[in-house]
């Protein structure tokens, strides 16, 4: 399991220092639902191969705005930070505007989440994070499409129609879940291609 700890009372510097003590190599923790999550160690190489397979399918279909490795800041109703996440893959809905660049300058390392149209995650040892808190966080932020490759259950999911969470972001969910067994195609909403999930049988 990844390290989890409360972060509400930490300063940015204190958070970085505590992270460095736990991980000698520079890492970027994710924050959601009041907890910090650090990358699993040792690394899950099957996870990395699966992420690359997912990314290449979007690139082969010439999907604009596809990328990986960028951090995104999710805000609540008051504009305060509700989460910091680094999706396995993402598709942006637009090119960066001057407002987006100003946000990045004010929050170094973190882009605004409203740039996102699609997020993709591949489960690893921290399986329940991708299927629980991350799914809820992306729905609460209004990300239209959440693609999940669940290597534990050997299923692939395309979640759409994020439901407004009300007062508690942890109550957020997606109204539509399209599911396929690994090995079967997973349909995605236009303009995205159907995913070939057979490569994830190998990387799983």
Q: What do you see in this structure?
A:
The chain is built from six helices and 14 strands. It is an alpha+beta fold and 204 residues long. The model is unreliable at 1-17 (pLDDT under 50).
Please outline the helices and strands.
Blueprint: E1 4-6, H1 12-22, E2 30-32, E3 35-37, H2 45-60, E4 66-67, E5 71-75, E6 81-85, E7 89-92, H3 98-106, E8 110-112, E9 116-122, H4 127-131, H5 133-140, E10 145-150, E11 155-163, E12 173-181, E13 185-186, E14 195-196, H6 199-203
Parallel strand pairs: 5-8, 9-10
Antiparallel strand pairs: 1-3, 2-3, 2-6, 4-7, 5-6, 7-9, 10-11, 11-12, 13-14
With helices defined by DSSP (H or I, 4 residues minimum), what is the helix count?
Answer: 6
Q: What is the topology, as strand order, of the major beta sheet? A: 1-3-2-6-5-8
SSE run: EHEEHEEEEHEEHHEEEEEH
Beta strand %? 25-35%
Largest sheet: 6 strands, mixed
Poorly predicted runs? 1-17
Q: Portion of residues in helices? A: 25-40%
Structural class: alpha+beta
How far apart the termini lie comes to: 18 Å
Counting copies of identical and different chains, the oligomeric state is single chain
Radius of gyration: 16 Å
Instruction: Round the mean pLDDT to the nearest integer and report it.
Output: 82
Tertiary shape: globular
Question: Which characteristics define this entry?
Answer:
six-stranded mixed sheet, 14 strands, single chain, disordered N terminus, 204 residues, alpha+beta
Brief digest:
This protein has helices spanning 12-22, 45-60, 98-106, 127-131, 133-140, 199-203, and strands at 4-6, 30-32, 35-37, 66-67, 71-75, 81-85, 89-92, 110-112, 116-122, 145-150, 155-163, 173-181, 185-186, 195-196. It is an alpha+beta fold. A hairpin with a 2-residue loop joins strand 2 (30-32) and strand 3 (35-37).
